[in-house]
């Protein structure tokens, strides 16, 4: 379980493409401190398992399902990534409940900078639109954000200078893919209401 509060901007140092998977080596001094085999680390919002770690780098295997559902398949050596360790019991929930289970990908459509923040417009897959509401929570590349405007096939987010400086969203340009995870509470509510309707 994560909160969507990115701890550091890491870097991909190695990519090994296998038959039905990929093995990534990533640098992140903060998230590797005290890391052990089997620990979880969110990479651009995707919960990955630490296979090995040495110094300030760790290795993670990514299966085909994850590569197909997320934007991790587009990563290359030198790519910057958002990194977050799972929350510990008793920690403050600074963002919202994030599982690290990406629901799909969107694409940056446009950026509108201003003096103190920037509005970013992102495309929204049809099967996720019903979960995204104005002022609701959404996870973009592992970052807990508030939806400013929920359009028919897009949504917008407002980014403060800290988010722009310390996460991948400061680097993304129109056309770039981003990982999306909708609020899990919305999915559970939908399922429960659907079960009630079926029972009637």
TrEMBL record:
<keyword id="KW-0677">Repeat</keyword>
<comment type="subunit">
    <text>Homotrimer.</text>
</comment>
<dbReference type="InterPro" id="IPR023366">
    <property type="entry name" value="ATP_synth_asu-like_sf"/>
</dbReference>
<dbReference type="InterPro" id="IPR017938">
    <property type="entry name" value="Riboflavin_synthase-like_b-brl"/>
</dbReference>
<dbReference type="GO" id="GO:0009231">
    <property type="term" value="P:riboflavin biosynthetic process"/>
</dbReference>
<protein>
    <recommendedName>
        <fullName>Riboflavin synthase</fullName>
        <ecNumber>2.5.1.9</ecNumber>
    </recommendedName>
</protein>
<dbReference type="GO" id="GO:0004746">
    <property type="term" value="F:riboflavin synthase activity"/>
</dbReference>
<dbReference type="InterPro" id="IPR001783">
    <property type="entry name" value="Lumazine-bd"/>
</dbReference>
<keyword id="KW-0808">Transferase</keyword>
<feature type="repeat" description="Lumazine-binding">
    <location>
        <begin position="97"/>
        <end position="193"/>
    </location>
</feature>
<feature type="domain" description="Lumazine-binding">
    <location>
        <begin position="1"/>
        <end position="96"/>
    </location>
</feature>
<comment type="function">
    <text>Catalyzes the dismutation of two molecules of 6,7-dimethyl-8-ribityllumazine, resulting in the formation of riboflavin and 5-amino-6-(D-ribitylamino)uracil.</text>
</comment>
<comment type="pathway">
    <text>Cofactor biosynthesis; riboflavin biosynthesis; riboflavin from 2-hydroxy-3-oxobutyl phosphate and 5-amino-6-(D-ribitylamino)uracil: step 2/2.</text>
</comment>
<feature type="domain" description="Lumazine-binding">
    <location>
        <begin position="97"/>
        <end position="193"/>
    </location>
</feature>
<keyword id="KW-0686">Riboflavin biosynthesis</keyword>
<dbReference type="Pfam" id="PF00677">
    <property type="entry name" value="Lum_binding"/>
</dbReference>
<dbReference type="InterPro" id="IPR026017">
    <property type="entry name" value="Lumazine-bd_dom"/>
</dbReference>
<feature type="repeat" description="Lumazine-binding">
    <location>
        <begin position="1"/>
        <end position="96"/>
    </location>
</feature>
């Amino acid at each position: 379980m994560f909160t969507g509060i990115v701890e550091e901007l890491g870097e991909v140092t190695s990519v090994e493409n296998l038959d039905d998977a990929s093995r990534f080596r990533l640098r992140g001094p903060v998230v590797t401190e005290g890391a052990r085999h089997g620990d979880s680390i969110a990479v651009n919002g995707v919960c990955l398992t630490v296979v090995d770690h040495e110094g300030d780098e760790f290795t993670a295997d990514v299966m085909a399902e994850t590569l197909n559902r997320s934007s991790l398949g587009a990563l290359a050596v030198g790519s910057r990534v958002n990194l977050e360790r799972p929350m510990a019991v008793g920690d403050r929930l600074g963002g919202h409940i994030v599982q690290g289970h990406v629901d799909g990908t969107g694409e940056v459509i446009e950026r509108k900078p201003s003096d103190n923040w920037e509005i970013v417009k992102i495309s929204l897959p049809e099967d996720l639109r019903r979960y995204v509401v104005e002022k609701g929570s959404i996870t973009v590349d592992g970052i807990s954000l508030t939806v400013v405007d929920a359009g028919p096939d897009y949504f917008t987010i407002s980014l403060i200078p800290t988010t722009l400086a310390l996460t991948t969203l400061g680097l993304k340009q129109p056309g770039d893919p981003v990982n999306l995870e909708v609020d899990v509470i919305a999915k559970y509510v939908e399922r429960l209401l659907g079960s009630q309707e079926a029972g009637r």
